[in-house]
Amino acid sequence: MADPTSDSTAMAIDEATRRRVIAAVAQAMFDHVEELTALDQAIGDGDHGLNMKRGFEAVMADIDTHAAKPLPEALSGIGMALVMKVGGASGPLYGTLLMTLGKQLPAEPTRAELVSAFGAAIEAVKARGKSDFGQKTMLDVLGPVHAALRDGGDLDTTADKAADATVPLKAIRGRASFLGDRSIGHMDPGARSSALMIHAITNVLETPA
Amino acid sequence: MADPTSDSTAMAIDEATRRRVIAAVAQAMFDHVEELTALDQAIGDGDHGLNMKRGFEAVMADIDTHAAKPLPEALSGIGMALVMKVGGASGPLYGTLLMTLGKQLPAEPTRAELVSAFGAAIEAVKARGKSDFGQKTMLDVLGPVHAALRDGGDLDTTADKAADATVPLKAIRGRASFLGDRSIGHMDPGARSSALMIHAITNVLETPA
Amino acid sequence: MKKFMNGPDTILAESLDGFVAAHDDIVAMGEDRKFVRRATLSPGKVALISGGGSGHEPLHAGFVGHGMLDAACPGQVFTSPTPDQMIAAADAVDGGAGVLFIVKNYEGDVMNFEMAAEMADREILTVIIDDDVAVETSTFSTGRRGVAGTMVVEKIVGAAAEEGRGLADLKALGDKVNAATRSMGVALSSCIVPAAGTPTFTLDDDEMEMGVGIHGEPGRRRVKLEPADAIAEEIVTAIAAEMGASGDALLLVNGFGGTPLMELYLMYHAARARLESRGFRVTRSLVGNFVTSLEMAGCSITVTGLDAETTALWDAPVQSAAFRQGM
Amino acid sequence: MKKFMNGPDTILAESLDGFVAAHDDIVAMGEDRKFVRRATLSPGKVALISGGGSGHEPLHAGFVGHGMLDAACPGQVFTSPTPDQMIAAADAVDGGAGVLFIVKNYEGDVMNFEMAAEMADREILTVIIDDDVAVETSTFSTGRRGVAGTMVVEKIVGAAAEEGRGLADLKALGDKVNAATRSMGVALSSCIVPAAGTPTFTLDDDEMEMGVGIHGEPGRRRVKLEPADAIAEEIVTAIAAEMGASGDALLLVNGFGGTPLMELYLMYHAARARLESRGFRVTRSLVGNFVTSLEMAGCSITVTGLDAETTALWDAPVQSAAFRQGM
Ligand SMILES: Nc1ncnc2c1ncn2[C@@H]1O[C@H](COP(=O)(O)OP(=O)(O)O)[C@@H](O)[C@H]1O
Ligand SMILES: Nc1ncnc2c1ncn2[C@@H]1O[C@H](COP(=O)(O)OP(=O)(O)O)[C@@H](O)[C@H]1O
Ligand SMILES: [Mg+2]
Ligand SMILES: [Mg+2]
Ligand SMILES: [Mg+2]
Ligand SMILES: [Mg+2]
Hints:
Bound molecules: adenosine-5'-diphosphate, magnesium ion
CATH architecture of the largest domain in chain C: 3-Layer(aba) Sandwich
Shape of chain A: globular
Pfam family, one (chains C, D): Dak1
Helix content of chain C: 25-40%
CATH class of the largest domain in chain C: Alpha Beta
Structural class of chain A: mainly alpha
GO molecular function (chains C, D): glycerone kinase activity
CATH superfamily of the largest domain in chain C: Dihydroxyacetone kinase, domain 1
CATH class of chain A: Mainly Alpha
Distance between the termini of chain A: 16 Å
Number of domains of chain A: 1
Number of helices of chain C: 8
Shape of chain C: globular
CATH topology of the largest domain in chain C: Rossmann fold
Largest sheet of chain A: none
Number of domains of chain C: 2
Number of strands of chain A: 0
Order of helices and strands of chain C: HEEEEEHEHEHHEEEHEHEEHEE
Helix content of chain A: 55-70%
Domain DhaK (chains C, D): 7-323
Protein name (chains C, D): Dihydroxyacetone kinase DhaK subunit
Oligomer: heterotetramer
GO biological process, one term (chains C, D): glycerol catabolic process
Distance between the termini of chain C: 39 Å
Strand order of the largest sheet of chain C: 1-2-5-3-6-7
Number of strands of chain C: 15
């Protein structure tokens, strides 16, 4: 998710950068535990912040191992760690996202390969969640970010706008769907955590070490 | 507990008066349910007002029967009704008080007989409660009222003062005793209900029908 | 006050009717709802009758059944039942071998059962339960309160009654188990007596009532909430100080009604470690809401010293609404 | 937040340790506390594994034992367990006849169990429980939630597994019982997730949440508190509307953790009368705290239509920590 100059230039993300990305994403989750939990209390069961924290604590415990691996294996390993530690809905979904990315990506992907792998990962999330765009979930951030990546849009503003855009939606998937119309007017917690991850990743990749 | 002119004049308490006394005592309990309950919440289990209300509702349901009987039988009958309806500590104690009075009194007692029967009833309460004066219970009103009756003192002010005097006592009997020093500073609920009954009785006996 | 009820005057009757209907294979209602008795009586055995104020459910009616009580007399909420109830219960379940009353040590209960025993025309003995070490007997002439240890006595004596033992024997056994039993409780919130409508006491958000009774009576002292380990330490220390020698023990962690099982098992974990470090061997265990105080949050810890006799009786089959094993 | 705990991070582990220690005649702890399993396995029978977020105790670990589950996987509070837990549990208890997962219909649970089934190298079928009529399926594509009916399925399918029935047969039975089961709940107060520390929702002193879920998820609507009869009427009406023909039924009144038994039996009384007036015959009953939401005050009503087969299976012996009969 860097900003490669052309579709066909392969990106090399070295071990130090991999480590910084992992740490930045984890830190973003740790810094927003309360916010995510509050969002989930409003329309879910109030654990999303804690779930993400628990998952990324496990990831951080093994950061050396993860960062040392080539990009695909690193992504798969982190995805598997999330699956095995988060629980809830977000664990299998983020885990599936990352594991699919890991399966689809070469070690040094081109931008086109990244776009395609990200698209496949989103499809895998949909399949796992029996869900689709517009249902007030993390997909409503992942989808627009995927489009922005493909079309060269700004990932950060896209992610924020997309998270904000979940507010007026009525939830069709996730615990919030039990609320029906009462889910309207609240941001989806998974959309927010997705946006936070995007910020953390772009921030590292755009900042020199 | 009227104000007979001499120790040896027999008092006739007719059916109408008996009815008025019963109704007045019951009404006093009904009017002070919340106060008695609040006192019992402070140092007991919060049911004294309700217990007395339940007992006197049962008495009132049979007021015709009770009032029609001669004084001793009326007292015994009311005592038995309280025993069978109040439960808790106050039921057996007030029941024992009245049943003993009923057993000891002739139909038209002299003042001396009244004093003596009341003394015996207080002893019966002590035996039933394994209790004595100065332990922050109803006995601390009944005792002083008995003395005032014997010595010609004013029953109402004696009862009120005696109830007030339970405030600084440390409870040695009753649920309040579980509080130890924390029972100090509160009026004993049973002392208050005793004082209320005394007021109701004197009020009827001093007021012409 | 938020309760599932139609009104404070009918809550008890409607609840009892529900209880008997839900468990009609085990219990039957006595006349005028004065008592709940076993659906099927065993003639010839000593009849065990207990009772007390309502609001401690499943105590006592939940323990009526084979291997425990023959009848239970429910009083109004937190108010002892009246003698007519015990007399009617004894009339219904005495199979000719006499009646044992099991009574928690509150003056109201003691006096009402005492009057019943005097007024009933039959052979009755009474075991008084006073297991609550929160009440320091040196200072309180009323003596200790009877709390969760009551169900331990009901279980063990109930099993012995099933074996056909005699009245005096059962009374002695009850006294023995009571003497081997110590409890103490702590509350995190108050309860609300339905007819009163307001909390019996109030605790700040960071306070607990240490040594609370099962009617929301204030306890030893009101202190700041502490970690579970510190609470268990204080309670186990108080209990162990009042037990004779350490040895085999039953550990009962009893919820007061408003505390989830997750926390009760955590307290069990904390209490057990502390008992074992004092030389007790926890050979029997029970965790749950058995002797409650309406919706009060909190729990009590009960330890009963066991010997071979009482262990075997604890293990004997029982089939009541709230406690069932072996049948 | 007032809870018996030493800290939100250890509450689950300490509670599980206490649970297993208290019931070591019935259960044993799996490696790394990933699951709780029967102390003694029966080789050759289909293994029943359930699990879900913690905070619903005694569900699920309290139902591990002869006649019900073989293992239960406890997640964090209100968070589905992770696939490694289910895989480890299956490895431990699969006796060669295959594994049946019993899963409440929450996306988290469904997805985690699904991933476990994909990753585990063995024969696994899954029954999804979705008994909560508070969720109107016409509007919610996620479908109904699984609530207290889960324990009914666990009991009935557990008894059938004990008889030696095959995996496909048990899956069909589970689906049948689920299809015959309907529930709805109401909350009078919120619960507090230990790690969150604040109530999941707040109700005014005169409000209740009708149709609440077992994680404190808001329900159908927030309304003024009503008398028990009116509450029972609304719930029974909602349930009956979604049942097929009336007939023999199991009535389960389940407390959410903070409501005393007295009120649960009163609700049972109110619900039973309303079911019977609609032609149901309440032939089996259960009242208590079985599928809870931490300390939430409230209850749910569950009705399962019974036939001769499911009635007999309901009556079969069971010996778990939280549900015991006939052994
Ligand atoms: N079926 C689904 N498809 C996509 N995303 C989902 C789905 N279900 C839930 N989510 C996402 O997961 C988030 C909730 O995660 P979390 O609170 O950790 O899990 P749980 O809901 O099990 O408690 C929601 O905010 C939503 O973004
Ligand atoms: N042993 C006793 N002797 C004399 N009076 C007592 C004794 N125990 C309790 N009382 C009286 O009874 C009152 C409490 O009555 P009540 O609240 O109705 O019963 P309970 O304490 O069983 O709830 C006390 O305030 C006290 O006056
Ligand atoms: Mg959540
Ligand atoms: Mg009282
Ligand atoms: Mg009382
Ligand atoms: Mg969750």
